[in-house]
Specification:
It is a single chain. By secondary structure, this protein is mainly α. It is about 75% helix and about 0% strand. The chain contains eleven helices and two strands, in the order ααββααααααααα. It has a two-stranded antiparallel ribbon with strand order 1-2. Helix 3 (about 55-75) runs antiparallel to helix 6 (about 100-120) and helix 10 packs across helix 11.
Length: about 260
């Protein structure tokens, strides 16, 4: 990769991180809301569900970590619409750097934010009485990077084609949230109707969530006995990441500066 492209990507990624840290509402929304979901749903559904050797609250915990990654990706990539409306994106587009630098910078900054927040919550698992150890948290880092790249690429792919944040929020509620709900994050395996199980099996995020469970419960086969094999999860998640980054890059190439308002 050319030095100019790397510098441009680094500058855009750094801008994303700095802007996030200066917006306390985003920090609160990205961290507090998923944890609140975990506390409420975990307490409310624990008497009704159980998955293998773990209770529902512990089963739901990896899904909450993926939700943190998803929320971070949504809030970070939606800023591309604000950048377009404020004129910042047009300034970047006319700079002598390839469009791929913009895509890589945006996805790189989003991935740093998503993995940092997810690890912050994952590291607190022992405090909540879970059987997730320090080794599992370390093993989850590459998985979180891969899932973050996938969701950041998907968010950027969608956001690049849109002109309004309201439209992006509509897509988020009608596509991205159901995608998370039907990823095995919420429903334990074997506890859903067959038609819903088919949808869950066809959802690429299902394999990212399962891969995260494999990593967090490394060395505890009983906790992951009902999940797809780790090798299959890795392959699907890797392909999903490649597809979404390629889609975001394609969208950035197609929509040129001349078509921007």
């Amino acid at each position: 990769m050319a030095t100019g492209t790397m510098l441009a990507s680094y500058a855009l990624a750094r801008r994303e991180v700095v802007r996030f840290l200066r917006q306390r509402n985003r920090v609160t929304g990205a961290l507090v809301q998923p944890v609140l979901f975990w506390v409420l749903f975990g307490a409310g559904l624990s008497p009704s569900f159980r998955s293998g050797s773990v209770g529902y609250s512990e089963y739901f915990f990896p899904g909450v970590i993926v939700m943190i990654v998803l929320f971070t990706a949504i809030f970070a990539t939606i800023s591309i619409i604000d950048d377009r409306n404020t004129g910042f994106l047009q300034g970047v587009l006319v700079a002598p750097v390839p469009r791929s630098a913009i895509v890589l910078g945006k996805i790189g900054g989003t991935t740093v934010l998503a993995v940092g927040q997810a690890l912050l919550v994952a590291a607190a698992a022992p405090l909540f009485g879970m059987s997730i150890g320090f080794g599992g948290v370390l093993a989850s880092i590459p998985v979180l990077v891969l899932v973050s790249i996938s969701l950041a690429g998907l968010g950027l792919w969608i956001a690049w084609r849109m002109d309004s944040t309201q439209g992006f929020h509509a897509i988020m509620m009608s596509v991205l949230m159901p995608m998370w709900l039907l990823s095995g994050a919420f429903f334990p395996p074997g506890g859903t109707p067959s038609w819903l199980s088919i949808i869950i099996a066809c959802n690429p995020l299902t394999y990212g969530v399962a891969l995260l469970r494999h990593a967090l419960y490394l060395g505890s086969p009983a906790a992951t006995a009902l999940l797809p094999p780790a090798s299959a999860c890795l392959m699907v998640t890797l392909l999903f990441a490649v597809a979404t980054v390629a889609g975001a890059s394609s969208a950035a190439r197609v929509r040129g500066s001349g078509s921007l308002p």
